[in-house]
Amino acid sequence: MKFENMNIIEPVLKALKDKNYTEPTSIQSKAIPIILNGKDVLGSAQTGTGKTAAFAIPIIQHIYNTGGKVKIKALIVTPTRELAIQIDDNIREYGKYTRVKHTVIFGGVKQGKQVDKLNSGVHILTATPGRLLDLINQGFIKLNELDIFVLDEADRMLDMGFIHDIRKIIKLLPYKRQSLFFSATMPRNIVELSSKILKNPVKIEVNPVSSTAETIQQYVYFTNKSTKKDLLLHILQNIENEQVLLFSRTKHGADKIARNLKKHKINSAAIHGDKAQNNRQKVLKQFKAGEIRVLVATDIAARGIDIQKLKYVINYDIPNVAEDYVHRIGRSGRAGEAGNSISLCEPEENIYIRDIEKLIKLKINVVNNHPFLQTDKPMTQAEKKEVEKEKQRRKQEFFANRKKKQGNSQTQNNRRRR
Ligand code: AMP
Q: From the centroid of its chain, how far is CA 14?
């Protein structure tokens, strides 16, 4: 299949050529014809598969073909600010030879410039849920002319406690519309949510979350907590000047790692939810421009980060939720590029590696020839029990945080109502 044979309009084909996209990815060849046909889509796909173009191209094309007054015709809701910005950037690129007007809104920054842009007229709006509802409530956004609604990364949306916001947004959409729903995983609550949004959707599945991109080489270094810092420096030395996206489970940990790397004259920065939005964007831009060698990120901040030709992802901590591992390493080896994932595993985390291997149905290559080998004896039954307990504790903490976040968004909404 070629883009030229997919009934894509000439200005978009030209923009795709500029981007050097030679052929559509799997999700693009499956989804574009269905979306152009006006059908609803339930897409099981994660970032890195070319999902953005799969929905952005038909949206741009719809607006190009229908013309008329500049009103919000398409709304894309996505969980993180970084992802929202990235989607809008892609729309700019794919639509650069059309007159389609688009913008992006997200929280954490003043609303003035976003409101000015909305007032100047927009066809395609990309938004995070909180700021969207806020600006709708203030009367800056009208959705009565909406033709296409996209809910992106639905599973993350629920993980981040946005379910109430999503329900509210759905109620504000016109009944007659086309809806596209994307999620990396499809647990029951996601399928239930999708049934409230979609009408007779066509199901499309690419790269389920339990399969890791074939182009990514995966390695694990078994080590100890006390030697992780030195092992990291050793690895960074071995891969010369390659850029690395490094994951840390906690924000505090991310700051600490970045500080230590700087101490060793390795250009690095941390990105996580406690950093100001402007700072997050600046750091991301610098990393994309190659000015920062190691970007240390937490899972949520890194969601959706798309760096062309990123060769290395390092897991400084092994995620206790196996799906997160797949999301993390999916940051490299995007759209067919070769990538490497390196995991640094301390004894308490050995069990997580086993969970991950079960999920991806693959053995991760163990690197044995390094100077910081794990010295602890194999875990006893009692230690295994301890680890299991810790796992349960973290799970409870995760759900408690989620509940808190849901509570917070409820309070915010109540405040807004008042
Ligand atoms: P996404 O899943 O939308 O985040 O896209 C992942 C990456 O793949 C982005 O860097 C896109 O620019 C790139 N990409 C999307 N479609 C294609 C294509 N047909 N050919 C090559 N690269 C693509």
A: 27
Within this chain, do residues 351 and 396 fall inside the same structural domain, yes or no? Answer: no
What's the CA gap between 239 and 341, in Å, rounded?
A: 12
Residue 62 near residue 124, CB atoms below 8 Å: no
Most confident of 70-84, 270-284, 298-312: 70-84
Q: Measured between alpha carbons, how far is 247 from 300 in angstroms, rounded to an integer?
A: 10
What CATH number should be reported for the domain holding residue 293?
3.40.50.300
Tell me: pLDDT of 379 over 60: no
Measured in Å, residue 50 CA sits from the centre of ligand 1 at 4
**Co-location of 418 and 336 in the same domain:** no
Percentage of the chain exceeding pLDDT 70:
88
pLDDT digits (tens, 9 = 90+) for 141-152: 999 999 999 999
For residue 45, give the ligand 1 atom closest to its CA: 2
Residues 361 and 412 in one domain: no
Distance, CA 49 to ligand 1 centroid (Å)?
Answer: 6
Query: What's the predicted TM-score (pTM) here?
Result: 0.67
Give me the amino acid identity at 56.
A
Rounded Cα distance between 213 and 211, Å, is 7
Ligand 1 mutation pick, 83, 94, 334, 337, max ligand atoms within 8 A of CB: 334
Residues 65 and 9 in one domain: yes
CB 262 within 8 A of CB 232: no
Whether the pLDDT of residue 405 is over 80: the answer is: no
Number of domains within the chain: 3
Classify the C-alpha dihedral 232-233-234-238 as positive or negative: positive
